[in-house]
Request: fold
Amino acid sequence: MLIDLIPLALLGGVLGLDVVSFPQAMISRPIVASTIAGALVGQSPSGLLLGAALELIALETLPFGASRYPEWGSASVVGGAIFSSYPSHPAGAMSLAMVAALATTWIGGWTMVKLRQLNAVWAGRKRDALAAGARGSVISLQLDGMTADFARGALLTAIAYAALAPLSRMCIELWTIDQRDSRAFVVAVAASVAGGAAWKLFHSTAGALWFFGGGLALGLFMMFLR
Amino acid sequence: MTTNVSAATRSLPVRTQISMFVRMLAIQGAWNYETLLGNGIGFCLEPALRFLPGGVHGKAFKDAMARESHYFNAHPYLAAVAVGALARVELDGESPERIERFRTALCGPLGSVGDRLVWAGWLPFCSLASLALFGLGATPIVVVGFFLAAYNAGHFALRIWGLRTGWNHGLRVATALGHPVLRRGPQQIGRVAALATGVAIPLALGRIIGPGRSLLGLVLVTVALGSFLLVRLQGRIEGWRLSLFVVAAFVLFSVVR
Reply:
């Protein structure tokens, strides 16, 4: 268990850091993070499958400055690793992995707020040095903040995976709904969020409704061709 | 490092530019609710400020560091414009009062333009395009590679452009914010992203659920109704939170029944 946990925790730390602190290259987006977690478990296609479902929900998240938002990086590692550890995708695996990811993303958002408060405390302690223009204080604040953010992501991933992976295993054994129906339910919920998010994002753009309609017709046509 | 970079030379050494760019990637490293991006701005400017008279031990450097490390708010990518412009005005020797006023004036536009262009435009577009690619059956490496390459092409280009534009225009940087990409970009990206939404959602659904059109049809109708409901509930509950409750209730139902 510990052997599995260390690489996942390190990955969670790196991806948690990417959300805000460094480098915001969006490796923390679910479609990337969950796929990487899947690859770490040896099942990148499974990671991608869950990542795509989570990405539909994450479309709603706009990381505007001071607003409080869910932390998808570490959460996607937890969800992606849990789902990928069942390569045959038994009934309930996707639903449980999604609940694990969404619960972790909620806690992750809260830990980010706490980290920001901690950064303010550290900055307050160095107020005099900052007012005197001490470069060492500016640099150390930046490095301390990033180190703490990495530790936050790693710890969150380790705790969430250690707690939720065994719980998921237990629930899968008790699962009673058919595999395809379970998956359809979960993906319908995720796509509903994506639809609502798209409206929120683009409804004020002139002509967007026509573009959406055209895209939908094209998407449905390609889907029925496949 | 005490070499002076005068306004006449109109450029910073490449090494300094690279150092500032790399630091820009960590501009939010010490983000907090009091100074927001402030410390990050000082952190990114520090390599350029070393060229002030007296170097890092000089009064000019310390005064500038103190001035640049307090409260600042902007979009993290477009903050590059502020970093470039502030480096320029500091090295040009503008008066502290003028720099303070300039710094304050930069906050608003760099926040709102960046939010609309990146968070509400480029990021969802790249995300939806990669979901469409996923729906078409692309492999994990193709989907992830496409998303990261497309998104970061825009991301890095914006940061590099910002740093250069800020440095080149200095106090007159406001004129550069009228760039067509910044003014019309969000509208154009919005239309293409709306198109990508239409294409991506059915394709992604199809791939996640797997073969079987009867179930897919039912799911599409459910998605339409669910989206309508979420639009009506907008502002009252976030979709991700509602998803957690709904899927958790579904799990509970399946496990205990």
Q: What stands out?
A: The first helix of chain A runs from residue 2 to 19. The mean pLDDT of chain A is 95. Chain A has nine helices and no strands.
